[in-house]
Design goal:
The complex is a heterodimer of chains A (128) and B (259). With 128 residues, chain A is α+β, with helices and mostly antiparallel strands. Chain A is 55% helix and 13% strand. The chains are: A alpha+beta (128), B alpha/beta (259).
Chain lengths: 128, 259
């Protein structure tokens, strides 16, 4: 029983491949190759795990009453609102710092002229 | 006699070095899907040949039965550049982007696959940057990103920029991808990586591009980014309506639950 982690590029690095080459099995004369592949966790499961952890924290806060109950009940609402604000902030910042390149349009027009000259000289129909 | 032997071994050594270089030299296949790109395709091909001087490459054009005569232009280009360097794969009608890449792949003989658009929004002058980045880092996938400092977009109004930025933030929050530009379609793939990922993607249009990069990211491929500039359509029209936004959201949630 040989257990090897596949190092080939493109294979999921978290896959474990167990290879069982059964050459001397008395019952089964043929060479059998058993491959067991453990799939990776789907992305949605990662997110759900995160939500479960946060929910657990919230429930424990409710139980231990470190923070007054009126605040604790509203914590998820605060969390969602702050997430929304963060999102809007990122959109706003991104919009302000949006990279533009007006000089590229000018360069492109030059390239187009050059290309058209070359192509018409070689008999390719490049008219508009 | 001694001199002759010296010359023979020298020649032999030179031949060894040249054949070794040929074996190391990689070939790049550029797949360009086209539909009604009669005005742009010639310009794109000229610029590709201008900027890839010392590279072994071929261009595979997958045309979905363009009614405006794109294929005639391509045949004229084949006369100029050679039909071993420009391959035309004509399809009867619009069959979708994913199948276009798959068809192009079957006709491509390169070690690397580069995909780009035919409408001059992707400038071929960045092709050497992709190739260099791949050689330096040994990455499996190099993707062009428009949203970084050295990149940029020209020709978008404020509303377009807002939707793009909002879409990007939403995708980053939900999917945690390894790249900053999910919907970009100017990319370089190792052939094995491309074959592996394209067979597992089912979406259409630009959601296909998102699916490719997200699936590749989940499978653990080494992905690098290169800044590119994007000049929105010089000839022709580019639309972003309500239906595109709905498509995007559907694609996003599909990727969230299935990758």
């Amino acid at each position: 029983m040989v257990e090897k982690r596949t190092e080939r590029r493109g294979e999921d690095r978290r896959k474990k491949v167990s290879v069982d080459v059964n050459r001397r099995c008395k019952k089964d004369r043929s060479n059998s190759l058993k491959v067991i592949v453990v799939p990776t966790m789907k992305h949605i499961l990662k997110i759900m795990a995160l939500v479960v952890v946060v929910a657990g924290l919230w429930i424990s806060l409710l139980q231990t009453s470190v923070v007054p109950h009126s605040y604790t009940w509203l914590l998820p609402v605060y969390l969602i609102i702050s997430l929304g604000c963060y999102g809007l902030l990122m959109v706003g910042i991104g919009l302000m710092l949006f990279p533009t390149c007006p000089q590229e349009a000018v360069l492109l027009q030059k390239d187009i002229v050059e290309a058209k000259e070359f192509l018409t000289s070689r008999g390719v129909d490049a008219g508009s | 006699m001694a001199k002759l032997e010296e010359i023979e071994t020298e020649e032999h050594q030179k031949a060894m070095i040249i054949s070794k270089r040929k074996r190391i030299k990689k070939k790049y296949s550029i797949i360009i899907p086209t539909y009604n790109e009669r005005l742009n395709i010639g310009l794109v091909i000229y610029l590709v040949f201008k900027h890839l001087q010392d590279i072994d490459f071929e261009v595979v054009i997958v045309d979905d039965g363009s009614p405006d005569g794109t294929q005639d232009i391509i045949k004229q280009l084949q006369n100029v550049y050679g039909d071993d360097l420009i391959l035309l794969r004509a399809r009867p009608k619009k069959l979708g982007l994913g199948t276009a890449y798959y068809d192009g792949l079957k006709h491509a003989s390169g070690d690397f696959i580069i995909i780009m658009d035919a409408d001059l929004s992707h400038h071929p002058k960045y092709l050497p940057n992709f190739i260099r980045k791949q050689m330096e880092t040994g990455a499996s996938i190099v993707t062009g990103t428009r949203y970084v400092r050295n990149g940029g977009i020209h020709g978008w109004n404020l509303v377009r920029k807002l939707t793009s930025r909002g879409a990007n933030v939403l995708a980053q929050t939900l999917l945690w991808p390894a790249v900053s530009d999910l919907t970009g379609s100017f990319r370089l793939y190792e052939r094995t990586a491309f074959e592996d990922v394209v067979s597992s993607c089912v979406s259409k249009g630009y959601v296909f591009q998102m699916e490719m990069i997200v699936r590749a990211s989940r499978k653990g491929y080494h992905i690098e980014e290169v800044p590119i500039t994007f000049v929105d359509r010089v000839y022709g029209s580019s639309k972003l309506g309500g239906s595109e936004i709905v498509e995007y959201l559907k694609g996003l949630f599909y990727l969230l639950f299935t990758t």
